[in-house]
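Lecture notes, structural biology module. Today: joint structure prediction for complexes of two components.
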Amino acid sequence: MTEYWIPKNINFLWAMGVILLTLFTALVVSGIFLLMYYKPDAKLAYDSVNFTIMQEVAFGWLWRHIHATAASMIFVIIYIHMFVAIYYGSYKRGREMIWISGMLLFVIFSAEAFSGYMLPWGQMSYWAASVITGLFGKIPVIGPDLLMWIRGNYVVADATLTRFFMLHVFLLPVVIIMIIGMHFYSLRIPHVNNQEGEVLDFEAEEKKYKEGNKKESKVIPFWPVFLSKDIFVVCAFMVFFFYLVCYHYEFAMDPINFERANSLKTPTHIYPEWYFLWSYEVLRGFFFNGNLGLVVFGIVQIIFFLLPLLDNSPVVKPAHQRKAFQVWFWLLVVDMVVLTIYGKLPPVGNNRYVGLVASLIFLALFFVILPLISRAEKKGA
Amino acid sequence: MKELKILAILIIVIGALYYGVEPYAHSIMEPKTAPADFAFKDLKPIDLSRGVASKGKDLVAQNCVACHSLKSQKIPAPMDKAAAGVSFGVVPPDLSHIASVLNPQFLAHFIKDPTKAALLTHKYKDDHPYPMPAFTQFSDQDLADIVAYLVSIAPKNLSDKQVFMQACQRCHDIKYDKLYAITDHKDLHRYLGSNAPDLSMMIRSLGREKLEVFINDPQKLLHGTAMPRVGLTKKAQEQVINYLEQTGDSKHHQRHRLGIQIMLFFAVMTLLAYFWKQKVWREVH
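The predicted structure, tokenised, for the full assembly:
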């Protein structure tokens, strides 16, 4: 670790990766404890979570709250990590593999979160699973068969729970760990980006450092210099994290999910967890044509993968040094916040039009404005 | 300074997002309701100040014990639970503790016209009558006497669980405390038109604030429900909610105690990490 070199010119936003690793570790450890008492059976699941784990097992509630809160917080940090990369152009010039493996992680984490959300067999788990798996049924030709294959039944039932359990506790975590390895490995060659997008001669800078010119060198070793700052950020984050775990868990544990799943009673409002809301709103945004919504929904799932292609300008600088890109960046942030908020609100009256306009802006930002910006920058460069 | 600016921007964006999907969205999705009314202002006050318990005792003996038991007064139920469930749909409550949990005004109005007081006129009509008849023949003085009698025999203090058993257990289970409804589920379903839910986790799915409005007037949050307005006093209702918390969220206090300790631990760690980081970075800056 002492032989891995990081630019000195970075801020605390570069600590998000280590926070993610910490949260993922917390998820695995708390998950193992939950696994000892959880029963993947439609008849037993709800009580094994709400009675056995939450009340009978010593500190079972703590493990469950850590697990649920970390699952939600990991998405907060993933989004920050992602937008930091977009802001500083870290998806460009030799760093494409880092970006793509990161986006792969995002997608697999989404599947991991979705499969885990279903396990407590609460009302919202059940209905969210019903709605989201139902989307696969709308795919042309193979849809209905695919839906049956995914659910293992005509409706979300015990078979669905059992296979989601397997995905959540075994297959997806293994895939995640493998992609994390790939994500780290792809960092070794192009190295970590820095605040100015500056290209460093890592070998020369490393030599300076080793010769004792630590102050002149533009790089620092991973251990102890880089990690000393990360550990400070992680500890400060943990104060906030445990505030959420013990006093404010309801943001990650929807109260309606403490109601047992009931296949005969639909909740008044069905909505996914907050981190899926923006893409859910794109799905609902094209309210006049469900199939169109589904197509666009499919596109936005992979849109971020295409970022290195859509922005192929050779300029690697932070957004505040690329004026047009900076405007684009903040429009994207605002648009995604709007999509997220309206994704939760009931789709009635003007809300539907807000959803439609925000979805169209989202598509335009990626497919029209971003290529135009990079074309202009290429000419200028 | 620059890092503090970045942190401020992060907090603003995440704060806006949080506000939008939590407090704001829920304020739109959930109907706004008036706060709980423990004075039962919709019922016209009956003068209960001159009630005579001894006269009330006679009235109860003549009118109530045909269906109700008063175990503390050694008056048994005329029917066993199974027979009562089949006949009425729900087992009539024992009246020994009734005045310990109900508001006296509500109790008087309930005797006079049960469906009206319980806010169930939409549910129980001539073709599906409410099992307890309206005692419209009682004068206000009769009602005051009966209430005075029931108050005179009611204990001043009941445990949280006893209040729950009096107020809720005729229909509801608390599986997590091995407490089951007195009435058979099949009879209840026929009587209510649906199942009465198990209340083990109600404290977590509704939370204290919503429970306070809901128990006081179920129609406000669940329009058309067969759950009656029970007429609990503020104190009795708090005891019911406390009991729900003890059974459904038994680790509440542990959570609050431990939370501050873990946060303090990480606060100390943060300080130590900060000093260490300063020491390490002094060499490179």
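Point to remember: The mean pLDDT of chain B is 95.
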